[in-house]
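Exam revision sheet. Question 4 asks you to relate a sequence to its structure. Input first:
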Amino acid sequence: MNTPDRSFTRRLDLTSLQLFVAVCERGSIGKAAEQEFMAPSAVSKRLSDLESAVGTTLLYRHARGASPTPAGQSLLHHARSVLFSLDKMQGELSEYADGIRGHVRMHANISAIVQFLPEDLGSFIRLHDQIKIDLEEHLSSDVVRAVQEGTADLGICHTGVSGPLPDLQTRPYRQDHLVLIVPRDHPLADREQLAFIDSLDWDHVGLHANSSIYQAMHQAATSAGRGIRLRIRVTGLDAMCRMIHNGLGVGLMPRRAFELMHGVGELTCVALTDDWATRQIDLVARDFSTLPVTARLLVAHLGEQSGQHTVTAPHA
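Answer key, structure tokens:
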């Protein structure tokens, strides 16, 4: 492995990176200079110094303006990321000045966000109104990756879809139970419960292929030697309900999520007898003991709330 050149960052400056991004976006040194209220010669000098610092040509300069070289494209990607992070840092620091006492960066999957987090986070904020929670919705696999990479302090997701998590710690948060959603006049609507494979004779409305629900469905169907007649994929549970209501198929979602969607179509749910339909939702962190104080406060609060909506699977 090459030893990192720690002097590299000292040879760069943020103003030059900002000017480089402006030139790439405007396609012209002159237009970028006008945008940044600088003389074109001063912009050109900074860009030349930047190329010297990185040791390669970053821009093609031609009669129509300027465009990034392959190395410039790479730098443009990283420069945008750096500048975005700085803008976010400035925003957070200004909030500290305005009285915010801490931030928690959290990623969670749609099941946790729809079913449990509105109430749990709402009660936390009422107790700690000077703590800001930045919450983003992602697939469970992406939640795990964000915690591993440090993009999120805390994750909430179904960890079973990601396999072993040797570099992470988990704590139980909630359980949910998947049910089959069908129109009220569907042949399966009168069933109290059924096995998932009994639904495979009908078209399905599914979620994203990488979602934990779809992966569980696919594994169950494959184990039974069957296929899923997938009519359409949607990105949200409300869209799934509307599609099912309009006759495009049946679909799986957590029972509590369905119960919270009042009035989304003439639908009913049928319990699944499959063991995998009862799912564990976990809190995920790299190390709970080293989380910032604000994040540890949130973890403790979520732990206190975790017994209120646990779902028990039906018996076959």
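Marking note for examiners. The chain is about 40% helix and 20% strand.
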